């Protein structure tokens, strides 16, 4: 019997990631090469998406990535060089700094992340305290909490609930980071409901459709595989979680491994393995998955099958700043 590769579908780019990358790509293509004044065609605040290869590829074409806006020189601001905000969104403080400096901002925040920002503002206006489940320090969480730091209370784990203290007459609502799954937040939500039984859940799920879809596909593939390879960067929340979901589904039968690309694969992982599941995070280009498949073929996995749980047809239009130029 042939050793086989089982590809999870859907995998790879979600609509928000595709929109963010296309935003930078559109600006680069419109620039038509280096400027006479030596300035770059575009600055990007933080990683446009959490994938090292995507960032390196865009940087090789002239995009300059900065951690903070003060790294954008005054002459670039005066020349109107676009500054792109990443798919993960920014806090109002970052937006105010951009406005103060007169930067030509192109906001590539994922619309699903933007929805959570708007929910924070609405609930604060209505007098709520907000409990936000998210990863401390993640760009998305930093931006959302920054909308109202005095009213948004970030927690990561069920044990963090003990550190919260709200009177019974406090209007209380729960929001979550979009890249967290229902499974991942279940124990935290249960702990919150035990401690604060009156807490309100968000009016509609804030979990990104792509997060849920990719995790369901990984679960299905892992049940048919002896081990799994998940392609994605270490700072990608959804990629790391995919690996964890795969490990949970594999159980004692095997192990899941996260890699940035095929070069990080260890052939010893596949000793005695007949079938390998392969998936990738929502910010991973498919050519990196193709590289993993090619490496596995070289290791003797000659048959390739795919398992599809749902077809995705979500699409987001480019930011309004680019649409206005057309």
Automatic annotation (TrEMBL):
Cofactor: binding details: Binds 1 [4Fe-4S] cluster per subunit.
Binding site for dimethylallyl diphosphate: 50, 88, 138, 236-238, 283
Catalytic reaction(s) noted: dimethylallyl diphosphate + 2 oxidized [2Fe-2S]-[ferredoxin] + H2O = (2E)-4-hydroxy-3-methylbut-2-enyl diphosphate + 2 reduced [2Fe-2S]-[ferredoxin] + 2 H(+); isopentenyl diphosphate + 2 oxidized [2Fe-2S]-[ferredoxin] + H2O = (2E)-4-hydroxy-3-methylbut-2-enyl diphosphate + 2 reduced [2Fe-2S]-[ferredoxin] + 2 H(+)
Ligand binding ([4Fe-4S] cluster): 14, 110, 208
Swiss-Prot/TrEMBL keywords: 4Fe-4S, Iron, Iron-sulfur, Isoprene biosynthesis, Metal-binding, Oxidoreductase
Protein's UniProt keywords contain Iron-sulfur: yes
Active-site residues, Swiss-Prot/TrEMBL: 140 (proton donor)
Listed InterPro entries: LytB/IspH (IPR003451)
A Pfam family annotated for this UniProt entry: LYTB
Cofactor(s) of this protein: [4Fe-4S] cluster
GO MF annotations in UniProt: 4 iron, 4 sulfur cluster binding; 4-hydroxy-3-methylbut-2-enyl diphosphate reductase activity; metal ion binding
Binding, (2E)-4-hydroxy-3-methylbut-2-enyl diphosphate: 50, 88, 138, 178, 236-238, 283
Function comment: Catalyzes the conversion of 1-hydroxy-2-methyl-2-(E)-butenyl 4-diphosphate (HMBPP) into a mixture of isopentenyl diphosphate (IPP) and dimethylallyl diphosphate (DMAPP). Acts in the terminal step of the DOXP/MEP pathway for isoprenoid precursor biosynthesis.
The name this protein goes by in its record: 4-hydroxy-3-methylbut-2-enyl diphosphate reductase
Organism: Bifidobacterium choerinum
